[in-house]
Amino acid sequence: MLEAVLFDMDGVIIDTEPFFLRSESMLLKEFGVDTELEYHFRYQGTTHEYMWETMKNEFDLDAPVGELVERANVIRNRLMEEDGLQPIPGVISFIARLHEAGVPLAIASSSPLTDIHKAVKALDIEKYFSYFVSGESVAHSKPAPDIFLNAAENLKANPENCVVIEDSKNGVASAHAAGCKCIGFRNLEFPPQDLSLATVIVTDFSDLDADYCRTLVD
């Protein structure tokens, strides 16, 4: 029995990955570090703090982690304001179909809660969701299961009866560890992530609805 659908946000609901990749690369260049864009794919689905702590140690960056996170946020927000937030094609209609079918929905994202609320308000989809949880709010970030277990608990749902929508290796691993079924979204605009732990892999949301999600848990 389908009890809830839990959405990641970046790369699933909003097309923010290009902004993340560009802001990370731009900030590293300020420290004299040049990276290929593909280098940053490994951090998709992780918290900002984990990512910058790892890069600080790898590249011996001369700045505190908190400062690196803030500086990257400033760059990313400027880029998003210049270009505007865009939803992943078809996802808003998919969310609306689930909501109309009475399926409880949550967003479980590694991004800060302020960013989550800003994005859903910009896309006018806040009304569809019953719960929001950020990676800041749990003890361990993706690929640990904490964030999806937290979302399921707050929706009073059994994780085994939840379907997660994820686009990253870390996110899919988190859903798998939580015992949830997982729809792995492969964005054909980017090099493929390892989504092998997903229950199914899709490349668009146009044909997905509550009945499809029910087949994954029944």
TrEMBL record:
Short name of any one Pfam family annotated for the protein = HAD_2
Gene3D superfamilies listed in its UniProt record? HAD superfamily/HAD-like, Putative phosphatase, domain 2
InterPro entries, per database record? HAD-like_sf, HAD-SF_hydro_IA, HAD_2, HAD_sf, PGP-like_dom2
Q: What is this protein called?
A: HAD family phosphatase
